[in-house]
Amino acid sequence: MDKKKIILDCDPGMDDSMAIIMACKSDALEVKAITTVSGNYSVDVTSKNALKVLELIGRTDIPVGKGMPEPMVRKSPKDPFTHGTDGQAENHLPDPATPLCGRHAVELIIDTVKANPGEVYILCTGPMSNVAMAMKKAPEIKSMIAGIYAISGAFGLNRYAYANATGDTPQSEWNVYVDPEAADIVYNSGVKLVALGLDVATHFDVNLTDGDIHMLEQSDKPEAKFFLQAIRFVNQRGFEAYCAVIDCMAVGYAIDPELVTTITGRVGIETKDGLTLGMTVLDSRHHFVWETLPEVEIGESADYEGFLKLLMKLVLA
Fold first, then answer.
1. For 246-265, how does the pLDDT look when each residue is reduced to its tens digit (9 = 90+)?
2. Closest-CA residue to 128 (of 10, 33, 272)
3. The domain that contains 180 carries what CATH number?
4. What element of type H or E holds 4?
5. Spatial separation of the C-alpha atoms in residues 310 and 144, rounded to whole Å
6. Contacts of 98 by beta carbon, 8 Å cutoff, 6+ apart
7. Inosine/uridine-preferring nucleoside hydrolase domain: from which residue to which, for each copy (predicted)?
8. How would you classify the pairing of strands 280-283 and 147-151?
9. Using one digit for the tens of pLDDT, what is the confidence trace for 36-75?
């Protein structure tokens, strides 16, 4: 079976770091490029962290392009949730010896898509600044992108959507909140978008068993030790283990779309400052639906047991 070609556009972050590990170790995926953006941390930090993880797992063959240092029209907000002083749950991996690829993330996205028309899926696990800018700079790529799988939004489909809100307004998700204008561009691009929101990505069922923890402790894999430290880091701060692997849900979906059940809905992005900035507003009415809103696929429920089995298998492989 042919591997699915992907670009991983991310802002590492411990969960983005785990997503890189998961994607690079999967036989189902071919990681064509990793592009970094400001989000959880500045793009200097996220770029360095991406290189650190690739060196950790011996995948320095994958090019890393450093991307947008700020959202498209705003200043970067400060993340209220910390990933530690190193951005990687205090794993303190050594500084990378591998250089960045030399191309800006936006150019790397454009070039990779054009070199593989109709074949590349973009996995967005950070703000959509790079992808939106690529679409503005080279609008012709929109028809060439196979699809976008994004950790994006909160749609109110269950109590987790807003109880675990990660943005800095009451009902927003961090990636959209950081750059709502970019999200608005991507959601309206016409590219097939699967938005895996907090409804499915921050679920308390994403928690490891004692047996899982034991297997990680017994493993000699450096990525298993990284994962174990990330879990300990979030647990010590009163958070559940899901915080360490939120972004892995996009990778899981890319590997096996049956892990997530989706619904189709019309969604608008709130770009006005105030109480609702960064909200992904789902128009789920029976009548009078705003037909002008873009139609996207939204994660409604997930097979968390299957997701965790896949994650553990790849980490320990």
1. 999 999 999 999 999 999 99
2. 10
3. 3.90.245.10
4. strand 4-10
5. 29
6. 51, 54, 55, 60, 64
7. 6-308
8. unpaired
9. 999 999 999 999 999 999 999 999 999 999 999 999 999 9
DSSP run (H or E) holding 310: helix 304-316
- The torsion angles phi and psi of 25, rounded to 5 degrees, stand at -95, -5
Is residue 195 within a helix (H) or strand (E), and if so which, with residue range?
strand 193-196
H or E element in which residue 282 lies? strand 280-283
Q: Decide: 254 and 123 in contact? Cβ < 8 Å.
A: yes
pLDDT 10s digits, 253-303: 999 999 999 999 999 999 999 999 999 999 999 999 999 999 999 999 999
**Integer Cα distance of 153 and 52 in angstroms:** 28
Single-letter residue type at 36: T
pLDDT at 85: 94
The answer to whether the CB of 4 falls within 8 A of the CB of 121 is yes
The boundaries of the domain holding residue 8 are 4-316
- Contact, 38 vs 12, CB < 8 A? no
Length of the chain: 317
Total number of domains in the chain:
1
Q: Determine the average pLDDT of the residues in 102-115.
A: 97
**pLDDT recorded at residue 205:** 75
**37 in Cβ contact with 127 (< 8 Å):** yes
Side chain identity at residue 63, one-letter code: P
pTM greater than 0.90 = yes
Return the SS3 of 118. coil
- Give the separation between CA 256 and CA 262, rounded to whole angstroms: 13
